[in-house]
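User: Okay, second chain of the day. Same drill as before: sequence in, structure tokens out.
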Amino acid sequence: MQRPSDIKYSQITIDSCNLYWRCVCSCAKKAKESIDDAFIYTNVITEFLSRVKDIQSTYGYDNSTIYFLFDNPKSKINVRKLIDDHYKSHRYNEHIPKEFWDTLALLEMILQCYSNNYVIMRLNGCEADDLVYPLIKEKVNDKNKMLLISVDMDWSRALSLSENVHWFNYSELFWHREIFKQKYSFYPEGNKVKFFKTFRGDTSDDISPAVPNIPSKLLLYIMDTYDDINVFISSFNKNENIPEQWKIKILENRSKILSNYHLVDFIQIEENIETYSFKCKENIPELRYWFKLLDLPFENRMIYKEEKSSSFFKKPKAKYYRS
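Assistant: Same drill. Structure tokens below.
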């Protein structure tokens, strides 16, 4: 199935912390061992903004709405770490300087005054993943397509909500649920993604596999047969289609299966989407303040006419006469 070359989206939703973390890793790799504050503040923020522009240029229009979904500082990350203390442990790696995390709050303040087409979303007690469904329910219709951008496979579940919702994981664009099935051999519907992540784990969230090396054919059978983890746990031992050696391994890893399943679950949100959405508004003076404070290079729109005219390249040049 070939993707239309001219497909564009009027709405783009970004897993902000996920993209930010990719920028952190990219900048840390470039910096190698010598990392100073100037490098951190300049490169992580500018790289994030640059990647957002590239995303909009590639997949959107000039006026596409960009939704930035943020994990709340008091989100389920902390609750989930009570279930598994390795959950998203990469975000707390002792080798990553604290200054990287300080820039995340600064980045959000910059986004607030960066563009009229930006919307920031965060809700107490929720991660970005939890905000995807209510956003789609409110904003996607027959006329508006939405592209979801995150490496987190949880976001693929939205493909089954609407044909106008697509998912990009930074390597592949899943513009149809059939594309997803071609790669993973199942549709991202019901609890299939939850079962898949439970057994296979998820490196993006530091969730280790519950049953290592379980055969794909067996896992697909389990996903097609069961839609509830509790029903599976209580009855798998009676299922003659599951080999005895794997019944033993499943039983040995029963607690890990249950904890993984809870780690990849979503919260049901009842609040109106407008209560946790912030409509950003372009404010050039405020942008200049932040860019100057953080020693970021000014964009053209931030340079006033008098500053442009005072530039060396704008000054009249002395005429040179050949003798």
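The chain has two domains: 7-184+282-297, 190-266.

User: Thanks, on to the next one.
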